[in-house]
Specification:
The chain is built from 18 helices and no strands. It has helices at 2-24, 28-33, 40-51, 54-67, 73-94, 101-109, 111-144, 148-197, 200-207, 220-235, 238-244, 250-281, 291-299, 304-336, 349-367, 373-397, 403-424, 430-449. The protein has a single domain, classed as Up-down Bundle (Sodium/glucose cotransporter).
C-alpha cells in the first residue's frame, strides 16, 4: 500500500505542476519556451530530465543487463551530445530568439528547406516520444499488474494533461521534480542496494563473463553507431534546442549544458551497473527491458520500491512530454504556419494546444505497435542525424553554404538512409553512417561546384538582449 501511495503522490505532483504552469502561461513564449527566463538550477534540471528518458533509464538498464558497463555507451553519447550543444551552439541559439531547429534552417536556406527539415524533425520527435510512452508501459505494468495497453494509456493521459495545461512551464516544473526523484531513486537508492544484493562489484565480476566489465563489451561497431546516432543527432534534437531557448542568458545556456552532460554520463554508468546486477540476480529474463523494474521489485523494501518506480516514470514522462511538445511546436510553427492554410493566421497558445493533442493521439496509437524502447529511438535518430545535422552546421558556421546545397543534401541523405534501412535492416549501423556521408558529400559538392549565391548569413541579436527581462 505504501508503494502505491508514493506513486499516487508522484502523479498528483505532476498534475499540480501542470496547474501551476497553466497559471504562469500568458502567451506563446510562455507555452513554448517558458518565457525564456529559466535560471541555472531549473534550466540544468530540465535539460537533464529531457535527456534521461526511457532509453536512458529503462533502456540503459536493459543494455547493462545484456552487455555490462559498456551498456552505458548509449547514454554516454547523449551526454556528449548535450555537452556539445553547450560548447558549439548555445550562445548562438540564445541570441536568435527561435522556437525550433527547422526555423533556423529556414532563416538561412528558405521556406522549402524549413518545411523539409520540419517533416524530419516532427517524425524524429514523435518516434522518440513513442519510445518513452512504451517505456512507461513496461514500468507501470510491473507496478500495477495490468496489461501493457492499460499501463501506456494511464501514463500517457497524465503527460497530456499537464503538458496541454501549461506547455513548457508545466513541463519544466515537472522536470525539476522528476530530476530530483530520479537522482534519489536511481543514484542513491536502487543502485547501491542492487549492487550490494548482487555481491558488490567484486562478486558481480566473479559471476558475470569478463566482457561485462569491458568498456567495449557491447562492440566497437555498436559504440561507433551510437556515436553517429546519438552524438550528432542529439546536437540537433528539437527537445534539447527548445530547452536551450528557455535559458535567460547565454551563460546559463552554456554552463547548464556542460553540467547536464556530466550528470548524464554518470547516470549512464550507474544505470548500466544496475542492469549488470540484475543479470546476476535475475539471469533468465525473457525481455531485457524488464530488468529495471524487476530488479527494483526484488531488492527494494516497501516504500523505496515506490520511489524507484517513480524515478523510472519520471525519466520517461519528462522526456515524453518535452518531445511531444517539441513535435507539436514544429508542426504548428514550421509546417502549418508556412502552409496556405496557416499563412496570415495568428497562431497562439490555442493552436499549439490543439497540435499537442493531435501529436499525443498519434503517439498513443503508434505506441501500441512498438515493442522496443531503444529500437524506436534508433530508427528515428537515423533519419534526423543523416538529413538535418550537416545543413544545421552549414547554416551556423559556413558562409559558402547555399539553399540548393541544403535541399540536395537533405533529399539525397534521406534516400540513402532509407535505402540502407531496406538493405541492412531498420536497426543496422549502416543507415546513419552512409546517410551522414551522403549528406556531407552532397552538401559540400553542391555548395562548391554549383554557382549559386550563398544563402544570407544569420543575423544575431545583440548579446545584451539575451538577458533582457530575465528573472
Amino acid at each position: 500500500m505504501l508503494d502505491y501511495l508514493v506513486i499516487a503522490a508522484y502523479f498528483a505532483g505532476m498534475l499540480i505542476a501542470g496547474y501551476i504552469g497553466l497559471r504562469k502561461t500568458r502567451g506563446s513564449d510562455d507555452f513554448l519556451v517558458a518565457g525564456r527566463r529559466l535560471g541555472p538550477f531549473m534550466y540544468t534540471s530540465a535539460m537533464s530530465a529531457v535527456v534521461l528518458g526511457g532509453a536512458s533509464t529503462v533502456g540503459g538498464a536493459s543494455l547493462g543487463y545484456q552487455y555490462g558497463v559498456s551498456g552505458m555507451a548509449l547514454v554516454f553519447m547523449l551526454a556528449l551530445g548535450i555537452t556539445a550543444i553547450g560548447l558549439l551552439f548555445s550562445s548562438r541559439l540564445s541570441r536568435l530568439g527561435l522556437y525550433t531547429v527547422s526555423e533556423l534552417v529556414g532563416l538561412r536556406f528558405g521556406l522549402s528547406a524549413r518545411r523539409l527539415s520540419g517533416l524530419v524533425v516532427v517524425f524524429y520527435t514523435l518516434m522518440v516520444g513513442v519510445g518513452q510512452v512504451v517505456a512507461i508501459g513496461t514500468v507501470v505494468t510491473v507496478l500495477l499488474d495490468v496489461s501493457a495497453s492499460t499501463a501506456v494509456l494511464l501514463g500517457w493521459a497524465i503527460i497530456m494533461v499537464y503538458s496541454i495545461a501549461g506547455g513548457m512551464w508545466s513541463v519544466t516544473l515537472t522536470d525539476v521534480v522528476q530530476f530530483c526523484v530520479k537522482t534519489v531513486g536511481v543514484l542513491l537508492v536502487l543502485a547501491p542496494l542492487a549492487i550490494s544484493k548482487a555481491g558488490g562489484l567484486s562478486g558481480m565480476a566473479e559471476t558475470l563473463p569478463d566482457f561485462y566489465f569491458s568498456p567495449t563489451g557491447i562492440g566497437i561497431g555498436t559504440i561507433f553507431a551510437y556515436f553517429l546516432l546519438f552524438f550528432f543527432g542529439f546536437m540537433i534534437d528539437q527537445g534539447n534546442w527548445q530547452r536551450v531557448f528557455t535559458a535567460r542568458t547565454e551563460r546559463v545556456a552554456f554552463w547548464g549544458c556542460i553540467a547536464s552532460g556530466a550528470y548524464c554520463a554518470f547516470y549512464g554508468l550507474v544505470g548500466a551497473l544496475v542492469g549488470a546486477a540484475a543479470k546476476v540476480l535475475l539471469p533468465n529474463l525473457s525481455n531485457p527491458d524488464d530488468a529495471y523494474a524487476r530488479v527494483a521489485d526484488l531488492v527494494l523494501p516497501v516504500g523505496l520500491f515506490g520511489l524507484v518506480i517513480a524515478a523510472a516514470l519520471a525519466s520517461t514522462m519528462s522526456t515524453a512530454s518535452g518531445l511531444l511538445l517539441g513535435s507539436s511546436t514544429v508542426l504548428v510553427n514550421d509546417l502549418f504556419a508556412t502552409s496556405k492554410f496557416g499563412a496570415g493566421r495568428k497562431l497562439g497558445v490555442g493552436a499549439n494546444r490543439i497540435a499537442l493533442v493531435l501529436i499525443g493521439l498519434i503517439a498513443l496509437v503508434i505506441s501500441f505497435a512498438v515493442g522496443s524502447v531503444v529500437g524506436a529511438v534508433t530508427v528515428a535518430a537515423d533519419l534526423l542525424a543523416a538529413t538535418v545535422f550537416v545543413p544545421v552546421l552549414g547554416a551556423l558556421f559556413w558562409r559558402r553554404a547555399s539553399t540548393l546545397a541544403a535541399m540536395v543534401s537533405m533529399v539525397v541523405s534521406a534516400a540513402v538512409c532509407i535505402g540502407s534501412m531496406v538493405v541492412f535492416g531498420l536497426y543496422a549501423n549502416e543507415p546513419v553512417m552512409y546517410g551522414l556521408l551522403a549528406s556531407l558529400v552532397s552538401f559540400v559538392a553542391v555548395a562548391l561546384l554549383v554557382k549559386r549565391e550563398p544563402a544570407p548569413p544569420l543575423r544575431m541579436a545583440p548579446a545584451e538582449k539575451t538577458a533582457a527581462g530575465s528573472a
